[in-house]
Amino acid sequence: MNVRKGLLNIPIPQPVVGIMGLSKFSRDVIRAIKALKNRQDSVPPGKRGGGKHVKPPFWPTLKGNATDGYTLDMVDGNVILRLNAYGLDAVKTIKPTSIPDGLSVVDGDKITCRIQEDEEGTFTTAAIRKTSGAWPSSTAPELVGGDNATGQGGERHIRLCEVVTIDGKVQLDVESTGHVDHFQPSLIDNTINSAYPTGDGGRVLKEFDHNTGIWELREIVAGSGVTITETADIITLEAAGGGSLTVEDEGAPLPTAASILDFVGNGVTATGLLGEKTITIPGIPAGSQGDILYFDAAAGVNDWVVLGKPAVPAGGGTPTQLNILTHDGVVPAWQLKEIESISVCVSGTAYCNTCEGGRSTKGVLTEDILFDSFPEIQTAVITNDCSPWQLMSGSLSDYQFYNPEGEISFGVSCGTTVNIDFSSSSSGGTGDNKYWVAVLLYVDGVLSTSTTLYQASPTGSKAVTVTGGACGSIVTMHSLLQDFFDSDITTTATATAEVTSIT
Questions:
Q1: Residues 350, 462: one domain?
Q2: 110 near 159, Cβ under 8 Å?
Q3: What average pLDDT does the segment 326-338 reach?
Q4: Between residues 43 and 2, the one the model is more confident about
Q5: CATH number of the domain to which 374 belongs
Q6: Which domain, by its residues, includes 316?
Q7: What is the dihedral of CA 122, 125, 131, 135, to 10 degrees?
Q8: d(CA 187, CA 301)
Q9: How many Å apart are CA 224 and CA 239, to the nearest integer?
Q10: For 264-285, how does the pLDDT look when each residue is reduced to its tens digit (9 = 90+)?
Q11: Which terminus of the chain is more exposed, N or C, with fewer CB under 10 A?
């Protein structure tokens, strides 16, 4: 019999002579030994006791064979907590969860007692864990305090035993047994005086460095006119003669303190004969909505003055006039200009080119490209000249034989690329409100590109290439509600289009 230190699988010796070849007394002895062995193995973990052979806490027992597999039992044990603040009791005993009782194991399995701690190093949970491969690593907590307002919990693994195979025999390599001690660390933090907001009093503690396990404290540095003296037990801060002021620029302190304040700037005055001084900083002229401020250096003025807002240009919502701010090198001024326009052609009809920065015409309803014999299904609406426009609106149940459609066209006077944003929405319906809207884009009657709008993707953007000119390209947008997949025929779908740019 081979016996290794720390290994558990020491079999009880058995006689090699058959029972029938022995006397009745010898047979009774062998039966008693076998009964004693079977009785010991049948006692539940943690309940075995009596005599000098009592097993210590967390003592493992391996059972089974290569054919049927191996199981692990373990004697009950506790984690003993040493607490810094736990009501009236500074010691608490915790029994870990998942103590093995018939736990299936294989070669290489490792058993640990895992202890989890919070950001203050306080115990939270304990459990017996089985892992394979390498031993699990332990991580100390990142303790809260100082600049670290959150911290981070840690996890410690106490190695108990490992299932190993030596000389073809599956055995246990015991790392440690007995109750587990846990000690809570002592936290450090600054005392906050109620007279100051948090941090305003200068905090000595910086933070706990979990990489080195060191509490880091800030160094006290002497400012201007201050002397620091360090003795065995105290630190003395002593100011030199004369007082000083901390000067801040928009809340940010200047690098050094000040003993003299010199106010400069046009119109700034400082008055007062005694200890109290009055600093006067002139304000700016009052104005109204839309006014502009400029500096007038003319004699007798030499100050900031107001350039009043111009009059509202003629034309209302579609202005025909425009106010322009000009400058002659001395003073600014407003000039009223007429908005120039040119004409472009849409299907032979000229329209005033006032949309999209003078690059496109207003939108017009055009004849249905796909089903021109059924103009009654046109659902597009021109709500304004320059978009956004309603391309289509309706449900599959609105028409007996045909799906709702819509078509809008506009001319492009210059540029080469037209960018259009599409969006869709749904309403009503008795089903899942799913819909599918196809949008086809034509340039001069030729299909250029297309996009699809549906419930899960209600928006899209497309760019089409055009040829600008006085009577340049015609862009046509045709929208069609499709009976597609699982569309809800009672759902009303609406599609819109907006010309975002022409470049």
A1: yes
A2: yes
A3: 86
A4: 43
A5: 2.60.120
A6: 302-338
A7: 20
A8: 67
A9: 9
A10: 776 778 787 666 778 888 777 8
A11: N
Same domain assignment for residues 351 and 487:
yes
Domain total in the chain:
3
Tell me, yes or no, whether 308 and 389 share the same domain: no
Kindly state whether residue 413 falls inside one of the protein's structural domains. Answer: yes
Residues 496 and 379 in one domain: yes
Mean pLDDT of the chain: 79
Q: Which residue has the tokens 């005033």?
A: 352
Q: From CA 24, how far away is CA 30, in angstroms rounded?
A: 10
Assigned domain for 1 exists: no
**Alpha carbons 401 and 392: distance in angstroms, whole number:** 17
Same domain for 477 and 353 = yes
User: Residue 41, SS3?
Assistant: helix
pLDDT at 19 over 80: no
What's the pTM? 0.38
pLDDT for residue 171: 94
Residue with tokens 């002139």: 282
Tell me if 162 sits within 8 A of 109, measured CB to CB: yes
Residues 405 and 332 in one domain: no
Check whether 65 has a pLDDT greater than 50: yes
Domain membership flag for residue 257: no
Contact between residue 387 and residue 361 where contact means Cβ atoms under 8 Å apart: no
- Verify that 69 and 215 share a domain, yes or no: yes
On whether residue 20 sits in a domain, the answer given is: no
Asked whether 3 and 10 are in contact (CB, 8 A), the reply is yes
Q: Residue 20 pLDDT more than 60? A: no
Question: Would you state the pLDDT for residue 1?
Answer: 34
- CA end-to-end span of the chain: 92
502 C-beta neighbours (distance < 10 Å), count? 23
CA distance 441 to 495: 14
Amino acid (one-letter) located at 374: F
C-alpha distances (whole Å) from 106 to each of 62, 112, 297, 382, 494 are 11, 15, 93, 77, 64
Q: Are residues 116 and 149 in the same domain?
A: yes
Q: Which residue, among 466, 406, 463, has the nearest Cα to 439 in the 3D structure?
A: 406
Q: Which residue has the higher pLDDT, 53 or 208?
A: 208
Residue 112 in this model has a pLDDT that exceeds 60: yes
Whole-angstrom distance, CA of residue 322 vs CA of residue 122: 72
DSSP state string for 381-446: B--SSSS-EEEEEE-TTSSSSS--EEEEEEEB-S-SEEEEEEEEEEEE-SS----EEEEEEEETTE
Q: What is the pLDDT of residues 225-258, one digit of tens each?
A: 788 888 888 888 887 655 667 777 777 888 887 7
